[in-house]
Design brief:
By secondary structure, this protein is an alpha/beta fold. The protein contains 14 helices and six strands. The chain starts with 10 loop residues before the first helix and ends with a helix.
């Protein structure tokens, strides 16, 4: 987890955070203008008027990510766009200020756990099993990588093909093998008698999204929170819209409990698999906790 405020922090410590706001803005402006030069920590810290060590701590506390990770995220997004537009891996690497494909490979592994070649080819080289199994919330559609569960969707009777197409569309060029037995194995582990057993997850997402998903895991069963509260836990309340996007991108329903996040006024909203299902999940947890 990042270096965030804890309940034990004193008010003077929080006040010092506010005083760093102009320096963080200066650093963000510098990164926005120079990220494709892959600037060093020392250069960014100089723009903020802080020593590198102190700047690293302050920046991470404010944004929820280190300067290096922030630059990697910008590099990754730009390289992905370039490759979608037809650039080769080498061209994307050089255009984003990297020395070559091996550096871009490292960026993509850190950001997505896939290689730039996989990303450019929309999943060529990735192999998944996909299958259906009954769950308490309708048919579960399970997307399974060799090392664990990558996605879990829910579907009403007769609409399983739509949910399956949704998961397949995330890796349109990947290989898929239909395996309902594997799906049933995961369904039994998650929903079977005796409660949830440990399930290995293989998540393809940026560090920012994984950070938000970790915050979701901290919400106790039967309780709820808001997007703004998650944003404050992760970095700053100003990021609630970005948090909403990360929550919406959660690929593993139920296990990563995005159904426990409500609008600021307590309304149910924004559940990819239907508000009725979100209501049922919350009622199920309230009755069984």
């Amino acid at each position: 987890m990042t270096d965030l405020a804890t309940p034990s922090e004193t008010l003077p410590a929080l006040a010092l955070r506010a005083s760093d706001y102009p320096r963080i803005n200066a650093a963000l402006d510098f990164i926005a203008a120079h990220w494709d030069e892959q600037p060093s920590l020392e250069r960014i810290a100089q723009a903020a008027g802080l020593s590198p060590h102190h700047f690293q701590r302050v920046f991470t506390r404010w944004t929820g990510a280190s300067p290096k990770r922030m630059i990697a995220a910008l590099t990754h997004a730009s390289a992905r766009r370039l490759m979608r537009e037809g650039a080769s891996v080498l061209e994307a690497a050089l255009e984003t200020g990297l020395s070559g494909p091996s550096r871009l490979h490292d960026v993509f592994i850190a950001e997505e756990a896939v290689t730039p070649g996989n990303a450019r080819s929309a999943g060529i080289g990735l192999e998944f099993a996909i299958g259906h199994a009954p769950t308490p919330f309708g048919t579960g559609v399970f997307l399974i990588a060799p090392r664990g569960l990558s996605a879990l969707a829910f579907a009403d009777a007769g609409r399983e093909a739509e949910a399956e197409a949704d998961l397949r569309s995330r890796f349109p060029a990947a290989g898929f093998t239909l395996d309902h037995a594997a799906a049933d194995h995961y369904a039994q582990a998650i929903f079977g008698e005796g409660g949830t057993r440990p399930v290995p997850l293989v998540l393809y997402g940026t560090p920012w999204r994984r950070q938000v998903w970790r915050a979701l895991l901290a919400i106790p069963p039967g309780e709820t929170t808001s997007y703004g509260e998650i944003a404050r836990d992760v970095c700053t309340a100003r990021a609630s819209r970005a948090v909403g996007a990360a929550v919406g991108a959660n690929p593993v329903s139920w296990l990563i409990p995005c159904h426990r996040v409500l609008a600021s006024d307590g309304r149910l909203n924004g559940y990819h698999w239907g508000l009725e299902r979100k209501r049922a999940m919350l009622a199920y947890e309230a009755a069984t906790r």
